Amino acid sequence: MTSVFGIPVAVILGQLMLGLVNGSFYAMLSLGLAVIFGLMGVVNFAHGAFYTLGAFAALLALQLFGINYWVALIVAPLAVGALGMAVERLLLRRVYGLDPLYGLLLTFGLALICEGSLNQVFGATGQSYPVPPALAGGFNLGFMFLPLYRAWVIAVSVVVCFSTWYVIERTRLGATLRAARENTPLLQSFGVNVPLLMAATFGGGVALAALAGVLASPIVLVNSYMGSSLVIVVFAVVVIGGMGSILGSIVGGLALGVIEGFTKVLYPEASNVVVFLIMALVLILRPAGLFGRD
Prior knowledge:
Number of domains: 1
Shape: globular
Largest sheet: 2 strands, antiparallel
Distance between the termini: 44 Å
Strand order of the largest sheet: 1-2
Number of strands: 4
Strand content: under 5%
């Protein structure tokens, strides 16, 4: 078979592969959101801003200090994660116990401040980040030429996402994190420093967003609005997978990236809204999301 619905199979497979790359970013970003909401009950609307900060941290580290991509993969998420811990300690901690709307409005304001500040300093014009030499070139898959860097992004995303799921769902640390949300006084009675644990949880969630930003920097232009263009789609992914569901965010992100890529081939005009159509359908049939709990 050389075509489906009159479209060459090579075109379809190529677009699906690119959709998997986009899905990798959706999965990592929605995973960070799910971790923060599931373990802290905070709707972090500044998640896209932390993604942008990760990309800028890698870019500035290279331009100012000559720090290469491989070091930036570690340093940038750690730096942004430390900033996230400071935000949790100084700001978010003040809205715990209040209506979740307060946390959403607070993080939305933080996103606007971050975006405006970056735009003021660096302007709206994007800057490119070079692909590391070790990941230059690509593979000839027969139906398309797959850049090696995009294959790297997919591999890293899958490893990071399922490693995070394993830590939270299958280890003692994950059980402690879940207990901190469900019964804080009891956990504190066992000598656990719950405030530090919560700060570390938020820092870890935004570090995942920063890591996604570093991975994206050689693919897209690094600019102050790169996060805002993704965060709405990522929130839709989280809702579809189930608010707070780690596995739902991973599977939903990867699947929706592929669906979006397939839609660009069959009906390009619908590619920008297909995620939201699926979200509406899921909310009608299963309001808790595909993997969420009622």
